[in-house]
Specification:
The structure holds 2 protein chains of 2 kinds.
Chain A (H helix, E strand, L loop, with lengths): L5 H8 L3 H6 L2 E6 L2 E6 L6 E3 L4 E2 L1 H19 L6 E10 L9 E10 L3 E9 L6 E11 L3 H21 L1
Antiparallel strand pairs in A: 1-2, 2-6, 3-4, 5-8, 6-7, 7-8
Chain B lengths: L2 H9 L4 E3 L4 H6 L1 E6 L2 E6 L14 H22 L11 E9 L8 E10 L3 E9 L8 E8 L2
The chains are: A alpha+beta, B alpha+beta.
Amino acid sequence: MALPDKDTLASMMGLVPQLSALGIELCEMDKAHAKMRLPWADRLVAYADSGVMAGGAVFTLLDSVLGTAVFSALPSLVPVATLDLRVDYLKPATPGRDLYASAHCYKLTRQVAFVRGVAFHDSEDSPIAHATASFILNRPPSHVASSEQQADEKDSTKKDQA
Amino acid sequence: MTPEVFAALKENSAQEVSLAAIPYAGFMGMFLQRNGDDMLVHLKYDIKHIGAPGRYHGGVVGATLEFAAMAQVMWEAYLKGEPVARDSLPKPVTVTVDFLRSAGLCDLYASALIVRQGRRIASVRASAWQEDRQKPVAEAQMHFLVS
């Protein structure tokens, strides 16, 4: 399946239960880049004394946007799974404010994607959290096979030339 | 995760206490159990936890691991007779989660081990599983600011 455009992917995300439960939505998508929004809600609070949202909500937003950056780096929609995700909590999110997150898939190999991103209110230059992750790409076997085949073909071409 | 919750679990280890006093934990459907000296977070299955078809969203697993770690840090402080904040929790500084298996359509559990408890920082490892504790779906390393 070819990679859907941003609006189609945004409406597909509306059907993902955890994203719709938190109201997380896709704002922007470009090749290997994505930006998403987590709207403020009182149910996100974990620190009653300060009204700050749970780290888990920030973690979920970042996992979502990093995964979407991987999707947007691929030529077609393939299932991906998070291998590992590290989040550094740089400062508390401001209570009552929407949280945004953007991510960039900076390296794509045949089987693994490497991504980084930040969560912020106004600007990426003033981040609330920073994330790095790797994702395994569950490409269909035929796709993997054809890539390997292509690689083999290239190798054999070189040999032929040599 | 108030002194009353820990007192109830110390008194009767067989019960399960809702974490609904914490808005996010209540929204997610988290419960706290005691297993010997360990706290155990029980996340009841709900369709809203799903990310990709048939699998938990990784963020939900991460959040459950984080709560298991915070519960363990606060529980051990409570057992030592240290003051337990009524309306706050340890603050995560770094959280690294390894996703080992996909989490399917059933309840999720997580518990944590404090590797080092310092004056300011607690270093914690946590594990999450579903039917078989020997087959964790995710493991995490975390650092929390505790003061």
